[in-house]
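cron nightly-structures :: item 1 of 1
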Amino acid sequence: MNNQALYDSFLEFGSFYYEPVDLEKDHLACMQLLTRDKTVEQLFCFPCEVYIELISGLASIVIGTPPDPADLKDFAIHHYLKLRPGVCFNILSVSDEASFYVLVPENRYTKVALREPFTLQPTPVRFNVLEILDHYYAAEGTAYRFNRAGHDYYELIYVHSGTLTAALADVSCTLAAGDLILYGPDSEHAKQLSKDEACSYLSVTFDMDLAEPERLLGCVFHCTNGLRDTMYKIIEDNAMRTPPARTLMLCHMQEAVTRLDLLASELAEERSLLRPGANLNFQSNLLQQILAYMDEKVAEPITIEQICHKFFLSRTSLQALFKLYLHNSPKSYLLSIKLQKSKELIRENQYTISEIADMLGFSSIHYFSRLFKKYFDVSPSEYARENSTGETG
């Protein structure tokens, strides 16, 4: 669960704060407590607001709502906590012991017995990267095909730049920059590079303890920024070839698979937002139709609402479809192709920059110029001058 989700979930019971409260100003009584408990059999309930400030150690709060707080939640205490009146809670020590303040305007409380003791469960590890057996980073400028025989280990392939075709059995897929694929044990697969484009990619062969890995295997993942940053760390580890670097690589591979597992979960949730019963082929074909329509209408002031109406999709479903396959939003994609089209129109030299901005649906020439400069690091007028005698990218 991410930080925002944790925050939103805790708001049911109270809020966070960051500076210690002023006891005199707020007329609060202070109790300093120490706990070594990993299990609790009762909760405390105050009729007033309660402030909890961790002093030392690591702790979690177990919390619920009356009259029967059977559905308990627990949160690691990273900030000071302010609980609403009537909330039932207790504190468990994550470290050997933890000390904390309980600050209240009145020292009256009731005890709520639990039907079953609550024990803080350690965070489960879904998988464990055990060993890295082989790793290399290749920057290839010539075409070749490499067939890899099956073995007992996992292999991760990440494309840093260019494109690479990966094949497993009779199924092949193209990986672009920022794409990643994970193969499982005993999978005979091939890598193929085109003669038309250079490619740099990372390959890591490793052993891993992973239950039910099917949802991670053989699928092309478009990396999030966090996963892309992790892959870059592994590329740096690969270059050093020292024992400390190998240790770091093992840690970064654990992080990479963790992020990949999180990405797979997010994509599974996004698929559920799409049309009920729609299979992946249908979704992919639908996306291709939408992209073709956007390309066709790129020189018109088309809106996201028009696209949704055209293809009988809600805005949420359209967002989910784009994030699932392109890891981008419809609005960002549409803006990108409009700006690319604007470069083409500028090179044709048939319209003024103001006419181009209006033709593509930008609200003003100033807004268009600012976006063009942001995307291409050159203003439209500068780009026009550079291309007056010949084209540049």
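cron nightly-structures :: done
The first helix runs from residue 3 to 10.
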